[in-house]
Amino acid sequence: MDLFPLWLSLQVSFVATVFTLAVGVPVAWALGRRTFAGRDLLAALVVTPLVLPPTVLGYYLLVLVGRRGPVGRVLDSVGIELAFTWKGAVLAACVGSIPLLIRAAQAGFETVDRRLEAAARTLGRSEWSVFWSVTLPLAWRSVLAGAVLAFCRAFGDFGITLMVAGSIPGRTQTLPLAIYDHVQANRMPEANMLALVAAGLVIALLLGIGRLVRLRY
Amino acid sequence: MRVRLVILAVVVVLGGALVGSPAAAAPGSAPPILTIFAASDLAFAFRDLIPRFESAAGVKVTLVLGSTGNLAKQIEHGAPADVFFAANQTFVDDLVAKGAVIAETRALYAQGRIVLATARTAGSKLTALTQLRDPRIRRVAIANPAHAPYGRAAEEALRSAGIWDAVRPKLVYGENIRQALQFMESGAAEAGILALSIADAPAVEWVPIDPARHERLDQAVAVVRRSPRPELGVAFIQFVNGPEGRVIMKRYGFLLPGEF
Q: What ipTM score was computed for the predicted complex, to two decimals?
């Protein structure tokens, strides 16, 4: 049985989760800690990927990063190709999962006692240092919970990935796409097996993380 | 401290995933790979045909099946296909006009037929389109007429039989014709209008639909302009249209160039 889709999906969702953290945590912090013009608009914008149908989202991403798209052309000139590569699947997974991370992390940052941060500042800590030594350590469970949700969403993405990365066996066919393909071809044993292996693996992974950090879902 | 440890752990795992990644593995000295985007009515015929081409040409073929409309859209946006087999020539002509496929390589390779299919679990075989109105037929599977040529042909046939409005509430749309068959195989639909080329499945029985009831399903193929190995794509098209390919295509119910 071909397990390539499983490895690809794991790889894509790991990489996507890291990018999602890198982009999402600062946004969540800004939303939870700062007041600025357009804050509410930004808060609404970050959840649009949850609202739009995935295939619609995927199509617009494809238009954007495809070879004819504005972003695609720029990336192409520096030799990066996103559409129909595994990196495109990462992009798809990031877009689909970032709202979950931002929402969870934002809630975490909002519950951190501002007086503790203020105390750190009176002790001469820079904003950067306050974030790393006070805010994040107090909010990290929410951030991690968001990251876990984001990982799961990334792992399961179907529609966005189908449009942006295609469903090319051995290259961009992630696990959900492979299962869909098996079902279409009426290869039910293969579909069931992949679904079972995937579910088992992800549950084991989540339990492992939970044990590691004593986090309850 | 703990936060940094977790971050470190993530980076290590990520690094491992990247290094040991299947996607990072270079093709190396393996045989060249030919990526074929094909309308899903070719699913069964190409399953027979491709292994023969692989051993004849020393190539490895990756087959991506889907609805003609979606595949065409993806090729337009730069999908790494080498050859595109459409279920209807208009999609290929459209891509020729957009410069996405090589005009000189465009060729007809088959003419498709549609059939009225009945799931074996649904009782006696339907023999005429008008029987789709029968109450025992609760769901009728067709491909999506909006972007799948076989779905469009199914709609035309239903309209020409004068039962489009009566059958419409029963219709379920597959994203492509293979999914329409799957709806019948899973028992979700009692009847369907399928491509003849995929209708020989154990779960269904069928009767042909008069081709005069729909626009001709002239199916065309072309090599994608971006293909780094257009000569391989041309070789595959010649194989399909050659003596060995024609025998197989005929077996799956296609009319062949020169016959229509």
A: 0.76
